Amino acid sequence: MAMTEPQSPRRILEFLVAAGVDMIVGDEPVNRLQPPPPLPERQAEASPGRAAPAAPTPAQAPAALRAAPPAPDDAIMQARLQARSAASLEELATIMAAFDGCALKATASRLVFADGNPQARVMIIGEAPGREEDETGKPFVGRAGQLLDKMLKAIGLDRSGVYIANVVPWRPPGNRTPTPQEVAICLPFIHRQIELAAPDILLTMGAPATQNLTGRKDGILRLRGQWFEVDIAERKIPTLATLHPAYLLRQPGQKALAWRDLRALKARLAAE
Ligand code: URA
Known about the structure:
Layout: H1 9-18, H2 40-46, H3 63-67, H4 72-85, H5 89-98, H6 104-107, E1 115-116, E2 122-126, H7 131-136, H8 143-154, E3 162-166, H9 180-197, E4 201-205, H10 207-214, H11 220-223, E5 227-232, E6 235-242, H12 245-250, H13 255-271
Parallel strand pairs: 2-3, 2-4, 4-6
Antiparallel strand pairs: 1-3, 5-6
Bound molecules: uracil.
The site of uracil (URA) has 13 residues, from helix 8.
């Protein structure tokens, strides 16, 4: 088939499905290469003496402008300031739900803030919500979450004995890995969430959560089973890295390693 032959819409759809696309991120295509139309202030500067036209309401703004989140550095700064201003977990959830600095919010259905008991001694941190989490607003409710529940049960815990959140609280489209920029924007929020929940121990599941919270760059098979100290505000929180349940679903032969980590967690809880 010649490269230039037009593809039928059906073939294109089949290709997209095979490539893992499972959602539409907007009704209108956005040409991000097109320069944005002049802003009202710029028009006013260009013709002094004439009244500036009223700023468009969000609904009137062109799609390209409406969709544009703040520049990444600004978004990180805003996330830091806003996270710091939250005096409680409830306030933090409200602030995060209103935060527009992370582009993932635009494609996710909702914020996935936390599940479990905020007073628990153990806080579990994953990477980012998947489809079921996005639909329900609760972390770890899909297949990986069901395995997590079984892992917890094996050491005598359930969701009333742990507090669960993710480094990134909005589902990335098609469950792709969040970009370093998206993670950087979300980090101030998870740091503040940890500070406000004040757990005795953190359990990071998988490489992204472990690497982003501990600053270590090794792979998870090296990091798992090790204890780190994560600096949150004035505290150094003992942090155990383990394998992500989604990885264990793909590699059930590695469950023995996770079991070893969970026993280490149980022993440390009993000792302290
Ligand atoms: N994987 C995660 O890292 N977090 C969830 O909430 C669900 C799956």
